[in-house]
Amino acid sequence: MLLVGVGGIGCAAASYLASAGVGTLILNDFDRVDASNLGRQFLYGPDDVGNLKAQVAAARLARSNPDVTYQVIDQRLSDDTLRRAVRSANIVLDGSDNFATRFAVNAACVHERRRLVSGSAIRFEGQLAVFGPDYSTSACYQCLYQERDESLESCSGNGVLGPVPGVIGSAMAVETLKSLSGAGTVLQNTLLLYDGGEGRWQSLRINRRAACPACGSATSD
Ligand SMILES: [Zn+2]
């Protein structure tokens, strides 16, 4: 299991995956703990400010769930090293906070044919979707978002209500555990939208884009 981004979403997803006893959890984040994010990034405390999130998270999770093996990648990944990390995982979770990372993770998942569980949160709203591993039938992240959306908002610029990323990270853990166990029905070609302001969930269909630059040429060979 590879988790990209150990912020508000990643803290929730990692906690549930670790307590479910997934074999190996690879935590990837090159960011450091910031005092202004502690409200939603509950694996960190005031003493951790300035330390690398991935390292602190792994140490904290290991105290509660020592049977899981933790690997830490606390640097920005090149395309090559990202592909290698994705290849080494069964499932990839993306809770990162920017489109450049999201597109790179998506491209690596399409290339390596890995399932991608993707989530994001802003203000009162969150969303999640599951892509792959067969990208000849499944849409990918970039079928949904195109490069020109790059200017979209970030939590640091717009704020987010603390529990909303927790809701999304928890739902991502649900999809991941279903995918691992074969129980239930994993979301497919579906975008789940959570509107915390209205207390409402909505489900939208995602269509594959034939001209998608990431998966457009994926075939079922
Ligand atoms: Zn695509």
Note down, in words, how this protein is organized.
This protein has 221 residues and is α/β, with parallel strands linked by helices. It is 34% helix and 20% strand. It contains seven helices and eight strands, in the order E-H-E-H-E-H-E-H-E-E-H-H-H-E-E. An eight-stranded mixed sheet has the order 3-2-1-4-5-6-7-8, with helices on both faces. Helix 1 runs parallel beside helix 2, helix 1 packs parallel to helix 7 and helix 3 crosses helix 4. The longest helix is centred in the C-terminal third of the chain and has 19 residues. The protein is globular. The mean pLDDT is 93. The structure holds zinc ion. Zinc ion (ZN) binds next to helix 5.
Write down the secondary-structure element order. EHEHEHEHEEHHHEE
How much β-strand is present in the residues? 15-25%
The general outline is: globular
Strand order of the largest sheet: 3-2-1-4-5-6-7-8
Largest sheet: 8 strands, mixed
The mean pLDDT is 93
**Strand count:** 8
* Count of DSSP H/I helices: 7
Bound molecules: zinc ion
Low-confidence stretches: none
Provide the helix percentage.
25-40%
* Termini separation: 25 Å
Structural class: alpha/beta
Computed Rg: 16 Å
Concise synopsis of the structure shown:
The chain has 221 residues and is an alpha/beta fold. It contains 7 helices and 8 strands, in the order βαβαβαβαββαααββ.
What is the fold's blueprint, element by element?
Elements: E1 2-4, H1 8-20, E2 24-28, H2 53-64, E3 69-73, H3 79-87, E4 91-94, H4 99-112, E5 115-122, E6 125-131, H5 141-144, H6 155-158, H7 163-181, E7 190-195, E8 200-205
Helix pairs in contact: 1-2, 1-7, 3-4
This protein binds zinc ion.
